[in-house]
Amino acid sequence: MNNPLQLSLVNFKKASYIIVEGKQKADYFFILRGGNVRISKELEVVEEEGGNLLAPGDFFGVVSTMSSHSHIETAQAVSDVSLISVHRDQFGLLIEKNAPVAMKIIQQFSKKMRYLDEALTRITLKSAASDDPSHLFKVAEYYARQSQYNQAFYAYHQYVKNVPGGENVQLARERIAKIQPYAKAVYLEVDNENFTRTYPKDNMIFSESQPGQELYIIQKGAVKITKIVNDNEVLLALLKPGDIFGEMSILEDKPRSASAIAYEDSVLLAVNKVNFSRMVSTQPQIITRLTQLLSERIWFIYKQLANTQLTNPLGRLYDALLIQLEKVRVPMNPGESYTFDFGPKELINLVGLTKSEGNAILHKLFENTKVKIADNKIHVTDVQEIEKQAGYFRKMEKIEKARKQGTMKAAT
């Protein structure tokens, strides 16, 4: 017997707070039926695409609810409002009964992801993302210089295919011929017959700036998501079985914003546009999983963007460590120790500091006896110390901001 979809109607008076940023328990999200709601954040880094004023048909609170994290925004009623309240556990049923709502949420999330990702790239990596397929040649050149011939061969091939009139096509063909004996690139062309694919370690699944037609679900293995910035490979994410990636290209018809490379031998399920549309109504559990993953990524990017607004670099290091603890849901118990899966060098990259800036601040970080290095990984002997220090620097930031605003008002 099918479980009935249970939605609640709730009303809020004008000026009421519906959700509050930082509040831990986020079990429900809301679809606006009548009236207007304003969304705000403590640190407004980039203005929301489409604005902060929501109208009937819009939704809010999905990111925190579906990622099971604290709220990343405050929602306040601008007028008397009527809302549909949806519990996290009801999301799969909502998709089954109302596929267009699920598609609207996923498409909006995808746009938001790209928008926020570009903002974060600009701020932390001091670089803009490239949608131009000719960037494929630069990607290929980078991997060729690193003697990573599988990745180089794949990117050269995609450059020749997608930019046939490009100025470097002849050079790319020469490079392809030269490295062919050493490369074992797979799935250079779209395979519409075989949707379960095996990628040996260090094989490129797709390259940044390449047009995309499929998303992928990891069945086995691990995949790293990377971007070439200032002639360096920056690791953006390491994905595991059950994770979904590459969805932005099929939802938005835009080139890939990053590269996906098999971190170990991997088996992937490829899903094209036709299959994806079918999945929305027939496999709600996969669409629920995709929404959870997108929610997780958006939550994380918001936190990273807020981190960029902290002016004290030591505060940014503590805040970055706290974000990582929150991301993997480490309980904030007194005396609880934790070893991060990265070292000092990766921490500096995470907050976008230069090597010289970073090394000086790391010295200050390790003056705290509760923060150590173990096997080249950052280890803390008490996670509450990270929470305490990050909270202190955020509080100091607020005080300084209020002081500056007060000074500016006095001057006018």
Describe, in short, the structure shown.
The chain is of the alpha+beta class. It has three domains: 8-97, Jelly Rolls (Sandwich), CATH 2.60.120.10; 135-290, Jelly Rolls (Sandwich), CATH 2.60.120.10; 310-411, Arc Repressor Mutant, subunit A.
Describe the structure.
The chain is an alpha+beta fold. The protein folds into 3 domains: 8-97, Jelly Rolls; 135-290, Jelly Rolls (Sandwich); 310-411, Winged helix-like DNA-binding domain superfamily/Winged helix DNA-binding domain (Arc Repressor Mutant, subunit A, Orthogonal Bundle). 43% of the residues lie in helices and 21% in strands. It has 13 helices and 19 strands. It has helices at 62-67, 91-97, 99-124, 135-145, 149-162, 169-179, 247-252, 273-282, 284-308, 313-327, 344-350, 355-365, 383-411; strands at residues 8-12, 17-19, 28-34, 37-40, 53-54, 59-60, 74-77, 81-87, 196-199, 204-206, 214-220, 223-229, 232-239, 244-245, 259-262, 266-272, 338-339, 371-374, 377-380. The strands form 5 sheets. A 4-stranded antiparallel β-sheet has the order 1-8-3-6. A hairpin with a 2-residue loop joins strand 12 (223-229) and strand 13 (232-239). The longest helix is centred in the C-terminal third of the chain and has 29 residues, at 383-411. It is globular. 35% of the residues are buried. The model has no long low-confidence stretch (mean pLDDT 86).
